[in-house]
Amino acid sequence: MLTRMQKIQMLKSMMIIREFEALIKKLYKEGDVEGAIHCYTGEEAVAVGVCNALRKDDYIFSTHRGHGHAIAKGCSIKKVFAELMGRETGLCKGMGGSMHLFDIENGLMGGNGIVGGGIPLSLGTAYASKYKGSDRVTVCFFSEGASNQGTFNESINMAALWKLPLIFVCENNLFAATTPSYKTLSHPDIAKRADGYSIPGIIADGNHVLDVYEKTCKAVNRAREGEGPTLIECKTYRVEGHCMVLKDLPQHRPKQEVEGWADKDPIDILEKELMQDEGLEKDIREQLYKEIQQEFNEAVQYAKTSPFPDINEFMKIANSRYQLCEE
Ligand SMILES: Cc1ncc(C[n+]2csc(CCOP(=O)(O)OP(=O)(O)O)c2C)c(N)n1
Questions:
Q1: What is the tens place of the pLDDT at every residue in 28-44?
Q2: What is the DSSP letter of 166?
Q3: Nearest CA to ligand 1 atom 10
Q4: Residue 12, Cβ neighbours under 10 Å: how many?
Q5: Atom 3 in ligand 1: which residue has the minimum CA distance?
Q6: Are strands 179-180 and 175-176 parallel, antiparallel or unpaired?
Q7: DSSP string of 65-90?
Q8: Is 150 in contact with 206 (CB distance < 8 Å)?
Q9: Which pLDDT tens digit goes with each residue over 243-264?
Q10: CATH number of the CATH domain containing 292
Q11: pTM passes above 0.90
Q12: Cα dist. 85→18, 62, 89, 96, 266 in Å?
């Protein structure tokens, strides 16, 4: 059972992710952030619900849309800002950027610019846990577009066969870039595919953080007890366009659809529930907002005053990779 305080913390985490991206968009327009920035707005309940069911030493594999995953798994906000601003103090010394956040200390095993690229990699840590007799669980996030990659079939089959402590979390946000999911999925429920591998396939309301949390907890218990993987499909909606670079694309969704999902905002849903069930004070969101802005001011200042990475250091890393390929 979650305490009132833990639920308020979840509300705050979702707000942090939302406000982080709002500020990143501003910094992008001002030229302080570059590259392909994929925002997670509307999907915050998935990252927060899942990561709250995990321990710090559990692993997650992220996607190209990974700011929310990194923040929810406990990465330093300062370092995430610095990474997106290409600074040496960033999570990956400013050499990874938005799509390649990586933080071994907090079990973040990396974002990935390859759609579905994290899926086969996640078998690695899950297998290592089993091999070493450790109870560390791995979560692999991916979206419904990635579920159509062949590697998903290969990986889920192997994970089920070997009973790996792995949780596949499909963030079904109804679009792959600009393509609506009804044009790419033969069946709207990805969770149904679990039947073919004899593992549980569960649908969660991806805009309801407590539903995501409860369903993930069950999957985590199952994985820690050696019973194998679970596929959780979180039904959600990506409120924004695909990516900052493509921001000028014509609106490709019906207005009614966008407005309908605006009524299911994950932050509003939890706030309303907390008011009804836990007597949450009306102005708590305002208070949390102020705390977040204060933390962000310091984090952006830290990032902006940090140096850019040394080009020689970068070339050293690039050359060592090149040599590895040659060998
Ligand atoms: C293997 C591969 N194919 C194509 C792309 C180009 N691409 C980037 S994001 C994307 C859509 C991915 O859709 P989905 O997995 O549903 O994630 P979403 O962007 O909706 O969160 C595509 C096709 C890529 N990065 N990698």
A1: 999 999 889 999 999 99
A2: E
A3: 177
A4: 19
A5: 115
A6: antiparallel
A7: S-HHHHHHTT--HHHHHHHHTT-TTS
A8: no
A9: 887 654 446 778 888 888 889 9
A10: 3.40.50.970
A11: yes
A12: 18, 19, 10, 10, 28
Grouping H, G, I as helix, E, B as strand and the rest as coil, residue 193 is helix
Structure tokens at 298: 């310091």
- Domain holding 225, by residue range, is 4-326
Ligand 1 center–CA 299 separation, angstroms:
30
175 close to ligand 1 (CB < 6 Angstrom):
yes
Question: What's the half-sphere exposure (Cβ side, CA atoms, 13 Å) at 158?
Answer: 14
Q: How far is the CA of 118 from the centre of ligand 1 (A)?
A: 12
Give the count of domains, the chain.
1
Q: How confident is the model at residue 288 (pLDDT cuts 50, 70, 90)?
A: very high
Instruction: Let me know if 141 is exposed, middle or buried by CB neighbors in 10 A (0-12, 13-18, 19+).
Output: buried
* Gap between the Cα atoms of 74 and 105, Å rounded: 9
pLDDT in tens, 199-256: 999 999 999 999 999 999 999 999 999 999 999 999 999 988 888 876 544 467 788 8
Number of Cα atoms under 13 Å in the Cβ half of residue 59: 28
